[in-house]
Amino acid sequence: MKYRRSKEFIVIRLDEDDKMVESLEQVCLREKVTSGAILSAVGALKSGTLIFRRGCQVDFQEHLEIIGGGNISSVAGRPKVHLHIAGGNDRGTKAGHLVEGVVTVFAEVLIQVLEGLGLKRKRDNNLLKQKVLNPYVLEP
């Protein structure tokens, strides 16, 4: 993984075998970013875990060309990436919340840092009761 930052933008290149969500959270931790917008995520994954809907989390082990977007907030003072992707190959498409994905070839991500917003997430027990697998809500 390599990245470069200007005042309000971070450009990240993830390489073969990098974990996408973990890597983005590492960059945000290093750069002290807890509020941001993932403007673009493009590239390819070879495996990972997606949440498709309430209570439905599925692992995949296949090449997917992806596009995505999301945001960065904080949970307990640490960066939290919320990234949705759509991906496809010659066998079809998948889309959903990316729990984690392993890069194949490369992926490129553009983050806009949102200074001064202080975006935070908190665990929502109501969502847990509904079997939502990522039960953190944004406190705008």
TrEMBL record:
Pfam families per UniProt: PCC
Domain of life: Archaea
Domain PPC: 4-136
InterPro entries: PPC_dom
The name this protein goes by in its record: PPC domain-containing protein
Organism: Hadarchaeum yellowstonense
